[in-house]
Amino acid sequence: MSSYFRPAVDAMEGYIPGEQPKPGTRILKLNTNENPYPPSPEAMAVLRNLDGELLRRYPHPYANTFREAIAQALEIPLDWIIVGNGSDEILNLLIRACGEGDHRQVVYPTPTYVLYKTLAAIQPATVLEIPYGENYQLPLDALLNAQGAVTFIASPNSPSGHLVSNDDLRRLAAGLSGVLVIDEAYIDFANDTALPLVREFENVMVTRTLSKGYSLAGLRLGFGIAQPKLLSGLFKVKDSYNIDAIAALMGAAAMADQTYKNQCAERVKHSRQHLSQELQKLGFKVPPSQTNFLLVTPPRENAEEIYLGLKARGILVRYFNHSGLEKQLRITVGTDEQNQTLIEALIDLI
Ligand SMILES: *Cc1c(COP(=O)(O)O)cnc(C)c1O
Predict the structure, then answer these.
(1) Where does the signal peptide begin and end (predicted)?
(2) Fewest 10 Å CB contacts: which of 52, 219, 230, 244?
(3) What domains are there in the chain, each with its CATH number?
């Protein structure tokens, strides 16, 4: 045997997450789109008041406390919700349940979230990447022609920050015989949602996460919303106890505290506007964003140099070393104070 691993695993590249400095390091982290504000005080109170009895027993297999809180907050039925260890797990379940080889492909417009490719490579399922058009026009005809077993649309998209219109998503859902996944990781910072499509189409799933809007990236909680028929296959594939008891309880508290989440999101959106103006004053190109980050082009298009210069000053932003994005930087919106530190470093650099 020449390898311990399946050929697909030998052939793939592992996913490379954004850099995570050690806790306590004096680094301004604007590279992985975390929320600059702390999690809901209600969620933190759950953690402080935890009873050991909760941990002696196995957790609920579907994390029903958390599901109930989601159902209430979003006004959807409980059995239209599947909970995952981060929304990444939901994306993984979708590919594992639906994708296979050349005849059940995974399709998505690029540039977008790189993890779709990694997850498909593990399955393995063949990937078809279709480039976005000018100004991030959705390549609707090509996506329809491809007829993927799973089609992923991140909306708002990363790293571009744009929102795909519900009209385009409806055309896609109506014309696809496979599953259309609308990845709404950044929806808390956007001004529309595709959630109504879940009622209209049985092949549509909307995925959400508590990592961005709810400041709980470390807890690992996400969920998918779809009609029960689409969820049935995913429930078969998931680990029996994929959500731990602590996460389920904290997640329920965070979900019930919509007021706090919305307040933080409003502050981030306000800071996004201000940061965008300040960057434009420095000559950066800054397209509008419906997320908690900006994809910017520096005036001299020397993105890598600026990325390294900021890093040397203890500020991390995201530089993508792949085609089409070499001239751009993705900058997470921080607090006004953090953004000001960034602006001062940039003035110093350019
Ligand atoms: C952050 C992000 C996710 C993953 O979120 P987790 O819930 O932390 O796994 C999914 N999709 C996109 C586009 C993201 O940016």
Answers:
(1) none
(2) 52
(3) 21-39+259-349 (3.90.1150.10), 41-256 (3.40.640.10)
